[in-house]
Amino acid sequence: xxxxxxxxxxxxxxxxxxxxxxxxxxxxxxxxxxxxxxxxxxxxxxxxxxxxxxxxxxxxxxxxxxxxxxxxxxxxxxxxxxxxxxxxxxxxxxxxxxxxxxxxxxxxxxxxxxxxxxxxxxxxxxxxxxxxxxxxxxxxxxxxxxxxxxxxxxxxxxxxxxxxxxxxxxxxxxxxxxxxxxxxxxxxxxxxxxxxxxxxxxxxxxxxxxxxxxxxxxxxxxxxxxxxxxxxxxxxxxx
Length: 239
Description:
Number of helices: 7
Number of domains: 2
CATH architecture of the largest domain: 3-Layer(aba) Sandwich
Structural class: alpha/beta
CATH class of the largest domain: Alpha Beta
Radius of gyration: 19 Å
Low-confidence stretches: 1-7, 226-239
Mean pLDDT: 88
Strand content: 15-25%
Largest sheet: 7 strands, mixed
């Protein structure tokens, strides 16, 4: 599991994402009085970590994972619920059942391109606003294996690395099957793929040392409505 504590090395980037999410929540709360979020692949720990920066007094969160994720943090977060479900097929929820879909470093783990498309379709169906983040394929260090360039190498070289040593979050593979499972656990995306999966979103790029570190596909209904209203009234905002 990724370290999502306030002192983690990636905290600066996460803080910017959380601030963005906070603004989205605030916009919805101002408009409706409350906000419903579905967090695909999320955990109670994330919301526990960032609760001081998010308006959870007026927000409910459903965290969806394929396995049970009992957490002691839930007792302190009555607005956060956990449910078992496949983020690529959430037919138990109606269209626009939520105000915001949020997902942090999950889409790269769902499997094949067909499943990534299904994930994206569910995101766009479930809410008028969303923020979907994923690591960038073009960043030289693979964020899960924690090795430079490994994700750019052919699979026969990659699985051998998993057999030889511990690689980031993955323990040293004891068999070829375990090595292949680690290799296929995450498939990173580039900007073109993210824009294709989320054609109605603005894809924001986080950069580090000149490299694209991650992408966040953002569609915010409140912002879109404001832009449309501005266009209709021909109002020019000051620079």
